[in-house]
Each structure stands twice: as C-alpha cells, then as structure tokens.
Amino acid sequence: MPFPLLSDYKQSVNKHKLRHTGNKPFQCLWPSCENRFYTNSELNSHILSHNDLRSFHCTWPGCDHKTKTVSNLRKHMDYHTADPSIKKFKCKWPGCKSSFSRKNGLSVHSLRHTKEKKFVCDWDGCSKRFLVGEALRRHMSYHRAERPYRCTWEGCEKAFTEKSNMQKHFARHKEV
User: Could you report the per-residue pLDDT of 126-173, keeping only the tens digit for each?
Assistant: First the structure.
C-alpha cells in the first residue's frame, strides 16, 4: 500500500501536468458561459461566480465586504494586513509610474490602460461591459432593483444599490 503522502503528491503532479497540456476537461454548463477548467474543484469555485450568494463576511472593523469563497475572503483580508509601503508590482505601461503592493492591484490597474472590458452584462437587452467584476456586480443590482443599503435615520425608509450613495444620503440628514 503506498504512503498517503506519496499518493497525494502523485495526484498533485498529475493535476499540475494538465496545465502544460492546455487541456481543460471541466466545462461550465451555465448558459452562455464558455469557461473551462483543469480541475473539478476549479470549476466548482467558478460556478459560485454565477450567483450572488456571498456567505463569507470580512471581520475587519468597519469593513462590510462579503465574498463567495473562503479563498477570496483570505485574499481580501490580505488587503487589511499588507504593508502598503511595499509596492513591488510596477506598471510597465509607457509613462505610468503606478505601483502596487498586490499583484491583483496591478492587474486591475492594467485594465484601465488596455480598456479591456471583459465583464459583460448578460441581462436581456443590455450589452454593457465593465473593466472589473465588482462594477458588473453593482450594475446587476440595478437590473434586479436590489437596494441592500438602507438608511438608518429614524423615520427614513430610503434604500440604495451602493453603500457610498447611502452614506451621502445619510450625511444630508445630519446637515439639517
């Protein structure tokens, strides 16, 4: 009987080899989604992107960020704990001097140079495109008429699609 550790290692090596073949045998079956993946677990993580269920909540004081997966929550928590003075990811776009402490920050920033809007609204009759997935998620809340951010001012029943709009509205109550 092989050692379990050796067996796990062999399985990992085989999964890794798939990446060199370019063969992605696991296809998303969501309508109009053509994404394919090397492993079933990657596919299962991707499937979560098709719904809006965000069960994992950030516990950082004052942050109300929610994610769909534990791994995304871990990445998000890195933003709170990272040393912002270390910015090793530098933009290579001619004339741009931006740098970032996280690779993802550089990736999102780079989209602004290329203007590649790869996030597409699939709402019937809407063809809007967005640079980042978060912008598409906010946009979809308009279609679904979702207003999760409610004003907490006594007697006010307004609700908003975005937290920043609710905060601006709430500030107006204080001005009066």
Answer: 889 888 787 888 888 778 777 778 888 889 988 887 788 888 888 888
Please give the structure tokens belonging to residue 140. 């979809």
Structure tokens at 10: 């062999």
0.90 cut: is pTM over it?
no
Domain final residue pick, 81, 98, 125: 81
CA 103 – CA 80 distance, rounded (Å)? 15
Domain that holds residue 75: 54-81
In a domain, 69, yes or no: yes
Alpha helical stretches, state H, the chain:
4-21, 40-47, 70-81, 103-114, 133-143, 163-175
Tell me whether residue 149 is exposed, middle or buried, using C-beta atoms within 10 angstroms of its C-beta: 0 to 12, 13 to 18, 19 or more. buried
- Those residues of the chain that have pLDDT short of 70 are 1-8, 52, 84, 176
CB 55 within 8 A of CB 71: no
